Amino acid sequence: MKSVDAHVADILDVVVPLPSRSLSLRSAHGCVLAADLRAGSALPGFDNSAMDGYAVHIADVADAGPGRPVILPVTGDIPAQAGTPSPVRRGSAARIMTGAPLPPGADTVVQLEWTDGRMDRVTVTRAPGLGQNIRRAGEDVAVGDLVLPAGRLLGAAQIGLLAALNVATPVVHPRPRAAVLSTGSELVEVGETLGPGQIVDSNSHAVAAAAREAGAQIRRLGGVPDSPDAFAAVLAGVLADVDVVITTGGVSVGAFDVVKQVLAGSGKVRFEPLAMRPGMPQGFGVIDGVPIFTLPGNPVSALVSFELFVRPALLRMRGLASVHRPTLVATTAQELRSSRGRRSYLRVRLAAAGAGRPPVAHLAGGQGSHQLSALAVADALLIVPEDGADRPAGTELTALRLGDDMAPFDSGVSWSDAGMAADT
Ligand code: AMP
Ligand code: MG
Fold this sequence. Notes:
By secondary structure, the protein is an alpha/beta fold.
């Protein structure tokens, strides 16, 4: 059987960052910068006051001190507003607000607290240093500075810096548009009444949520019956408008495994059992330039395979360099069996074990591939190697930490760009 690592490598060989586009700041939030960004303007853009106070000539106030007040006529009042203020002459002062442009002539700002704050003539009781309380043009960013390198994820501070530099439409890798659908004639949309033998289509919601957390824009198509024609029609209808397709179900060896039936013969999608548990049956390929992940139907298998295969691909499409979950070392709380030839990903909760010691991994509940409740309370996927050697309690193993990347979702990039319905 093919190893998990070989499958990940095959996927990351094929999947590349999406072509860059200029997006609004709103839409670029959570995207990755596609090119180095050099400053086209300086920050601050002009010399300005760092404090509310008085703009002065240093020579006029250098001797101020306790018991030696200096009194200057106030000849101007400069708020933070558009325009160039009038000069300040020797022997006078101008009231100035934080952020207001420094008037010509002045070389220092005395903060309000060192004065009596009057508007007609001001008494200065402490001597500032030359240039005190002035923010110099370009002291934060100079024209031509490399402020954000290609590959930088745009979070709040980066979006703020772009706006400050008057960059309205940075060039980024857009979020992947992901179509999510599940297959199964037994499936019913959540909220509907179940008949005998029917189950709620939880996979399309779970996978859509996982893909959204991984930064994708979602088109959730819901459940498609196990009919080759129906599946082929839904797939054909969506390929032109998406960057990636994720399906669940219908990939194993059952009589109605529709995804495999429709796609295996195409030569574009490879179906192969992977040496893992849960999630052995998997398919991956590219149709009309669109990567397609066909995940198994059992809910835990679907989400664990999403973690291992789809999430890295989505992060790569977004242009992120680091695409894997952080790992950690945990100590097993109980003996764990290794399944020879198949790497296990156990759903565990982590308990702190004290300073300097790895956390202890407790099974989060039933480990069947249908037992979603354990995954829903798990902190991590504990990896039990496929070497067949059982691990006694207290063994250190590697785990993948889950769920620390709630992405800033609802990106504001509308599906209507692509003629599609909104993210549901
Ligand atoms: P399959 O891979 O299509 O044979 O599906 C395996 C099992 O996973 C099914 O018997 C269902 O119990 C379950 N399953 C498949 N699709 C879904 C889904 N969309 N939501 C919840 N459970 C599912
Ligand atoms: Mg099925």
